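To assess whether the prediction recovers the assembly geometry, we first specified each molecular entity separately, as shown.
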Amino acid sequence: MYGLCDCNNFFVSCERLFRPDLVGRPVVVLSNNDGCIIARSNEAKALGIAMGQPLYQVKALIERHGVALFSANHTLYGDLSHRVMTTLRSLVPSLEIYSVDEAFFDLSGFDEPLDALGRRIGATVRRNTGIPVSIGIAPTKTLAKVASKLAKHYPRLEGCCYMHREEDIRKVLSTFPLRDVWGIGRRYGRRFDEMHLRTAAQFVDLPEAWVRGRMGVTGLRTWYELQGRPAVGFDDLGSSRQQISHSRSFPHEIYDRAELERIVAGFAAACAERLRRQRSLCRTIHCFLTTNRHREDQPQRYETTLCSFAEPTDSTLELVKTARRLLREIYRPGFGYKKAGVLLGEIVPEGSVQRTLFGSVPTEKHARLMQAMDEMNRLYGRGKVKTAAEGTEPFRMNREYLSQRYTTSWDELLVVKAK
DNA sequence: TCTGGGGTCCTAGGACCC
DNA sequence: TCTGGGGTCCTAGGACCC
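The predicted structure of the complete assembly is given in tokenized form:
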């Protein structure tokens, strides 16, 4: 049996934790640059505000209904996510953190009835962190996702849905919307609508060859999983990333090469830091640059290029230098650039490196320097020590509705008035 | 005017090898 | 009429997830 713990409206719940006056009121959280809606409270969903909708399209609605707005405060959400995961780890033997607000766990070998266990897990997370969660328990991960959605929608389940008998599962799938199944996205959803396939049960009844032919092996996995046959592996070791990327849209178009170079240098440095944190090295670095695709009246350009290193590296100095060189290669004057990014690939664990005969980078020297830099930034705050190439002005985003750093800054702790 | 960011896996096609 | 077979590597694109 697999369990899934899914935080309810996670980013909104994080904001409400420190603003209890917002419980029961419509709340939304915005993407970087306050561009799109990326999280909604139930009340905001009921107003018809869609996931991913640009803010300007719902501005009037938001003002009319007094919807509370927040800029994304990922530091806060990351911290609270860590608290949720720590609580979960204390309750189950193995945990796979699937995303910032979701984790699977393996429930084999428990004596306690699983629905009682699920409710106990949900209540403990709620008590320890203040974040409301939904628990789904079923024979496969895909079915556990279905169960967690039921737990979220039906209050009488008290936050946990345990689904195991074949006839119960069949009954649930016969009404469960196919487009809400994990692995069925917008494209397939539309295609199934055209075929008048509406429920998960109707999908399960399709012939295996049809699914394989139209949806490939990934679709077939979903098909198996809905039948209670596990086809998606469980990964509790927290395997390291195969790619690390950092990209941003800019609040305004940027034309200046020097400015782009500083920004890209900062992105490369951010990637390098994360690379070292997971104790890995990368062999390739990509750099991309793109204009504003929404401005059809302006000339468009998208360019990407890469560099492969002879020896894998985690050196900020080398990655920053290379990213700037790649940027100079793809940059053309006269275009208004709206977004840029850096992507590290072919990531290998530190210590498994094949050295080259003619290595040119002073690896050991860089390693000691990076260690010192990381340590200083850990002690004195992020970005205290950085390469000159990044410039002194940090990359600015629009964050008009940012909440306090309640959990990561002494100056911004929540003040409780005692009267 | 305004439109996110960070990931995964799979497949097809082109260029190349012997 | 009729033009091999077995590979690798790379890129782009498509699908999905949160």
